[in-house]
């Protein structure tokens, strides 16, 4: 999964998108001006690919919402602890708006438990209570699916108990496995049982459990996620450009380690040269199981932007969620 620089594609980006190893493009705020522009950009990406490609974005709500002007302002999901009836409508609206512009999926929901430690997670978490977070996140996923979008739970097995920001450093969580299983893994376990389609592991090291950070760990991805939790969906690495991935060496080394651990798709963002190195260096062989997992993430839009904005459901939900976002700030 690679990214692009601006509001329209350059020739170099068109070539990178059509590289045999490119499987997806992630969009950021710099790629967005309005719904019409981003829909045209997405269509140009699909044209450049000349084949199947996934389009992703981080559209959680609150601090992490890449598309804003013209979209509903979504509150941080922590607000649903006090407004639980709006978790499912929020999931539907977030997904429906993105799908109407051609985006396949958002990297949502956050399943981390707020332990009052991590500022980078904070109100991106549904709750400090595992059972409450699980219920609210499950309802959010239900709303996403009703709109036609697969859900991606992050950051497995839990990023909420470390103070360091994995964008800037490699966080270290000293807890043992029993502690994490009793708290952080509960939302992942329940949502996997409910059909969670994708997961993103954390750039967090749990040294009392395994010597590798979760996104580079066969123990976490193969033994815990695949075998113990019976997860059959897609695993997306977190961004290999983050400082939490630097321990593994250069970008091809990071990508190969994540791939060997069991990641189905590798993210390299905000560094076109690094993305190019990974595209050229990483062996990606035909794998029907991986392809099935990734194809299941494709969006299934049910309305155009015009149909969506004209619908009474969207108008009601958008008005209320805009107000919740305003009230929560």
Question: What does this entry look like structurally?
Answer:
- This protein is an alpha/beta fold and 329 residues long.
- The protein has one domain: TIM Barrel.
- It contains twelve helices and nine strands.
- The strands form three sheets. It has a four-stranded parallel β-sheet, covered by helices on one side. A three-stranded parallel β-sheet has the order 7-8-9.
- Helix 7 (218-228) links the parallel strand 8 and strand 9.
- Helix 3 packs parallel to helix 4 and helix 4 (130-147) packs parallel to helix 6.
- The radius of gyration is 19 Å and the shape is globular.
Highlighted features:
single chain, 329 residues, alpha/beta, TIM Barrel, 12 helices
In short:
The protein is of the alpha/beta class. The protein has twelve helices and nine strands. Helix 1 links the parallel strand 1 and strand 2.
């Amino acid at each position: 999964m690679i990214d692009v620089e601006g509001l329209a594609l350059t020739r170099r980006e068109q070539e990178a998108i059509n590289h045999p190893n490119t499987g997806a493009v992630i969009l950021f705020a710099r790629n967005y001006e309005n719904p019409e522009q981003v829909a045209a950009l997405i269509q140009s990406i699909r044209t450049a690919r000349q084949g199947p490609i996934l389009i992703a974005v981080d559209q959680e709500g609150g601090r992490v919402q890449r598309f804003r002007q013209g979209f509903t302002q979504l509150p941080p999901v922590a607000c649903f602890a006090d407004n639980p009836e709006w978790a499912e409508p929020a999931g539907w609206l977030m997904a429906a708006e993105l799908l109407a512009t051609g985006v396949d999926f958002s990297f949502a929901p956050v399943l981390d438990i707020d332990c009052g430690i991590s500022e980078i997670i904070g109100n991106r978490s549904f709750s400090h209570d595992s059972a409450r977070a699980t219920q609210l996140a499950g309802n959010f996923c239900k709303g996403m699916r009703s709109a036609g979008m697969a859900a991606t739970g992050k950051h497995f097995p839990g990023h909420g108990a470390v103070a360091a920001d994995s964008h800037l450093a490699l966080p270290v969580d000293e807890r043992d496995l029993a502690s994490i299983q009793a708290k952080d893994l509960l939302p992942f376990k329940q949502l996997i049982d409910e059909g969670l389609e994708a997961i993103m592991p954390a750039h967090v090291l749990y040294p009392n459990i395994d010597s590798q950070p979760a996104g580079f760990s066969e123990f976490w991805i193969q033994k815990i996620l695949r075998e113990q939790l019976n997860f059959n969906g897609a695993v997306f690495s977190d961004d290999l450009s983050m400082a939490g991935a630097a321990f593994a060496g250069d970008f091809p080394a990071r990508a190969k380690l994540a791939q060997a651990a069991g990641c189905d798709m590798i993210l390299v963002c905000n560094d076109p040269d690094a993305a190019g190195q990974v595209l050229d260096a990483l062996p990606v062989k035909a794998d029907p199981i991986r392809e099935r997992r990734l194809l299941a993430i494709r969006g299934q839009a049910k309305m155009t932007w015009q149909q969506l904005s004209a619908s009474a459901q969207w108008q009601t939900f958008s008005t209320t969620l805009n107000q919740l976002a305003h009230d929560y700030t």
